[in-house]
Design a protein that fits this description.
about 625 residues, alpha/beta, Rossmann fold, 3 domains, 6-stranded mixed sheet, 6-stranded parallel sheet, 24 strands
Length: about 625
C-alpha cells in the first residue's frame, strides 16, 4: 500500500491551473476517483480560498518547482492532510516534507484543555483539536507508518491561518493556553505573518530533487497498522501506542480535561463518543485507560461483552495482573457508591441493558431497590466522569437498549450535561469509509437508497465466494501468510456443546462443507480456544464465529456467511425468523433490524479485506450483480 492524494503538481503548475480556473475541476475529479460520494461544500470553499495563499508564497520565494500533494490521505485512515510540500532541505539535501494545515477560521477561543479550541460561540459547541496539535499528529503518523520518512526525511508542519490576524488568535497562542510543542518543527502563521511564512518555507525547502523525492515518497511502502488486541497490553501498561487524529484527538483530550475539571469541582458531565465501525472507539477507550491510570487517576473500562472484556483482560494480564483488573462489565456497578471511581469508560455502550438485574423480584423483601434503576443511571452515578462510546447500528440482541437518546434522557433527568463528540473518520477497512457506506447501503441501514454497485478500492479487498470452501481456502492462504483471518456466520445453525474431550460438533453444514461453531467452553482444551478468545487465538480460524464472538474485534480478513435469516428476493431484503436459531433474537419485535445490524457488524471486522457468501443463491447473485469480484 502506497500513499495517495487527490492531485499532485508543482507549485508552478498549480498556479497556472488556478489562473485558468481548473483547480476545483481537477480536485473534484480526484475526489471522485479516490473517494467517491458526496463532496462537502465547505471543503470546496477551502480549496478555493486556501490553496492559492500557499502557492503564491512558494512562487514569491522562487520555489515554483517544489512538488505539492493536495489532500494526501494519512497512512492509517481516510483522514486527509490539506497540503504536503516536497523538495529537498536547503542545507543537507535530504528529502524535506512540509505538512500544511489550512484553516479558514476568523476567530478561536481556548477549549477545556491546551490541545483543544472552540471556533463557535454557541453554548453546545464542540471542541476541535488545536491546529498545532493537529498537524503534529499528522507528522507523527507519517513518521510512524512510512519507514522512508522515518529514516530519510525532515518533516515540518505549518498552520496557515490566512483569514485571521495574530490579534484575532491571541487567545489560542501556544504560550497563552500552555500548549507544549516544538517550535522548530511546528509553526502557525496568520494573515499578517506572510513574510515570516515565506521565510520559513525558504528555510526548509529547495526545489532541487523535488520530482525524484515525490516519486520515492508516493511509492514508499506503508507499515500495516496493528490490531487493538495485539498491542493493548502496551497501550494500557506502558505507553501511548495508537495515533489519534482529528475527532479522536478531540475526544481523548476532552475526557482528560473533564477529569481535571472534575477534581477542581466543576459540574459533572457525561461524555458521549459516537462513531461507526472502525472509527477508533475502542482505541480511544484503551488509550484513555492507560494514560489516566499512569497519571494516578482511578479509571476503569467496562463493556457488556464477555468475549471482549475477557480478551482484553487476558492480553493485559500477561504483562500486568493488577492492570487487568481495570476491565469490568456494565452490571458491576449496582452497589457502587456515587463517584466510586474517577473515570468509567463504557465501551460498546450500545450493549447497555435496561437494568443490571434480570432476576428482579418485587415481592422479595430482601431485594435491593437500587437494582431496579436503569443500568445507564448506575454507570453515570458510579463515576465522577462517565464516558460512553457507542454505535447505534450495532444493536444485535434483544434487551440491548444503548442509544444516544437513552443516555441523553437519563442524564437530563439527573440534571447532568452531555457533551457529544462524533467520530467521522475510518481507521479500519483499509481506512475506506466507502466500504462501510457500501455495506450499510447494501443492508438498507441509514441510507435512502438501497444496494449500490461496488467500486474496487486500492486499500481494501472485497470478494464474493461461490462456495464456503472457496472462501475458506482464500482466507487460510492469508492466515498461512501471516495475516489474521476469521470466518463468521449468521446464527442459522444449531449449536452443540463440546464433546467431553473438548472436540466440537460440525454444526455449520452447507452442502458437503461443514465446520464447527467456536467452542462454548470456558477454557482452552486440546488446542481449541474458548469463545472469548476465538478472534485472537491462532486456532480460532478452524471454527466459525458468530456475532457474540466477533463484535468488538478486528482481524485482517473477514469471511462472512449470510444464512437464510436474511435473503434478497430480487427487489428487497426479507428476514426469516424460523431460519434463525438465536432465541435472543428471533423472538424480538425488531428482528429484521437486529439481523441486518448483525451482518453489518460481521462484514466490517476486516482491516484489509472481506469475503461474502450467502447460502441463498439469489443473495449470492446480488453480490455478483453489484460488481463484487468472484473468487
Amino acid at each position: 500500500m502506497a500513499s495517495r492524494c487527490l492531485y499532485q503538481a508543482t507549485a508552478n503548475e498549480l498556479a497556472a491551473l488556478i489562473s485558468a480556473g481548473g483547480l476545483l475541476r481537477e480536485l473534484r475529479r480526484g475526489y471522485e476517483d479516490l473517494i467517491g460520494g458526496d463532496l462537502n461544500t465547505q471543503e470546496v470553499e477551502s480549496w478555493r480560498n486556501s490553496i492559492p495563499t500557499v502557492v503564491d508564497l512558494l512562487l514569491e520565494e522562487g520555489l515554483g518547482d517544489v512538488q505539492v500533494l493536495l489532500e494526501l490521505k494519512t497512512p492509517i485512515s481516510d483522514v486527509r492532510m490539506d497540503m504536503v510540500l516536497i523538495g529537498s532541505h536547503p542545507t543537507n539535501g535530504k528529502m524535506s516534507l512540509v505538512v500544511v494545515e489550512n484553516k479558514q477560521w476568523h476567530w478561536a477561543t481556548p477549549g477545556p484543555a491546551p490541545e483543544l479550541v472552540y471556533i463557535s460561540r454557541q453554548p453546545n459547541r464542540r471542541p476541535h483539536p488545536h491546529p498545532i496539535r493537529q498537524v503534529w499528529d499528522y507528522r507523527q503518523v507519517l513518521i510512524d507508518y512510512i519507514p522512508l520518512v522515518r529514516s530519510m526525511a525532515e518533516v515540518r508542519c505549518f498552520v496557515n491561518m490566512h483569514n485571521a490576524t495574530g490579534e484575532d488568535l491571541t487567545a489560542i497562542r501556544p504560550a497563552t493556553v500552555g500548549l507544549q510543542y516544538d517550535s522548530s518543527v511546528v509553526r502557525m502563521f496568520c494573515s499578517d505573518h506572510r513574510d515570516y511564512f515565506k521565510r520559513a518555507l525558504r528555510d526548509v525547502l529547495s526545489p532541487a530533487k523535488a520530482s525524484r523525492y515525490v516519486q520515492e515518497f508516493l511509492e514508499a511502502p506503508v507499515s500495516p497498522t496493528e490490531s487493538l488486541m495485539t498491542v493493548v497490553n502496551e497501550s494500557v501498561c506502558e505507553r501511548t501506542v495508537f495515533a489519534l487524529l482529528d475527532e479522536q484527538r478531540a475526544a481523548y483530550e476532552y475526557v482528560r480535561a473533564a477529569v481535571k475539571a472534575s477534581k477542581q469541582g466543576a459540574p459533572k458531565e457525561v461524555v458521549l463518543i459516537v462513531g461507526g465501525p472502525g472509527t477508533g472507539k475502542s482505541v480511544i477507550a484503551v488509550e484513555l485507560l492507560g494514560a489516566l491510570n499512569r497519571q494516578g487517576v482511578r479509571a476503569v473500562h467496562a463493556t457488556g461483552s464477555k468475549a471482549f472484556t475477557l480478551t482484553l483482560r487476558d492480553n493485559v494480564e500477561k504483562v500486568n495482573r493488577r492492570a487487568a483488573r481495570s476491565f469490568s462489565y456494565f452490571n458491576s456497578y449496582t452497589h457502587a457508591t456515587p463517584h466510586d471511581i474517577d473515570v468509567l469508560i463504557c465501551d460498546e455502550a450500545h450493549r447497555l441493558r435496561e437494568t443490571s438485574d434480570r432476576r428482579r423480584n418485587a415481592f422479595d423483601e430482601n431485594y435491593d431497590q437500587r437494582q431496579g434503576r436503569p443500568q445507564v443511571q448506575e454507570l453515570i452515578e458510579a463515576a465522577a466522569v462517565p464516558v460512553f462510546l457507542l454505535d447505534e447500528h450495532q444493536l444485535v440482541r434483544r434487551g440491548e437498549v444503548g442509544s444516544i437518546k437513552l443516555i441523553r434522557e437519563v442524564a437530563d433527568s439527573m440534571g447532568i450535561r452531555v457533551q457529544p463528540i462524533d467520530l467521522r473518520h475510518q481507521f479500519r477497512c483499509g481506512g475506506c469509509p466507502e466500504y462501510v457506506t457500501w455495506v450499510e447501503q447494501l443492508l438498507g441501514l441509514g441510507w435512502a437508497h438501497g444496494p449500490q454497485p461496488w467500486r474496487p478500492l486500492e486499500t481494501f479487498e472485497l470478494y464474493v465466494a461461490r462456495t464456503p470452501a472457496v472462501m475458506e481456502e482464500f482466507l487460510r492462504a492469508k492466515q498461512d501468510a501471516g495475516d489474521t483471518a476469521r470466518m463468521a456466520a449468521g446464527y442459522c445453525w444449531p449449536w452443540n456443546d463440546p464433546r467431553p474431550d473438548g472436540t466440537l460438533v460440525d454444526d455449520v453444514q452447507i452442502g458437503d462443507w461443514h465446520r464447527p461453531w467456536n467452542s462454548r467452553a470456558e477454557r482452552e482444551k486440546n488446542g481449541i480456544p474458548p469463545s472469548s478468545l476465538w478472534a485472537t487465538h491462532p486456532a480460532g480460524f478452524n471454527q466459525i464465529g458468530c456475532i457474540y464472538t466477533a463484535q468488538g474485534f478486528e482481524y485482517k480478513y473477514a469471511g462472512v456467511i449470510f444464512g437464510d435469516d436474511l435473503t434478497w428476493n430480487g427487489q428487497k431484503w426479507e428476514s426469516h425468523r424460523r431460519a434463525n436459531k438465536d432465541t435472543q433474537v428471533n423472538g424480538a419485535r425488531q428482528f429484521d433490524e437486529l439481523v441486518r445490524n448483525t451482518y453489518r457488524v460481521l462484514a466490517t471486522r476486516g482491516m484489509s479485506g472481506a469475503v461474502l457468501y450467502s447460502t441463498d443463491p439469489s443473495t449470492n447473485n446480488l453480490f455478483k450483480e453489484l460488481g463484487v469480484p468472484v473468487l
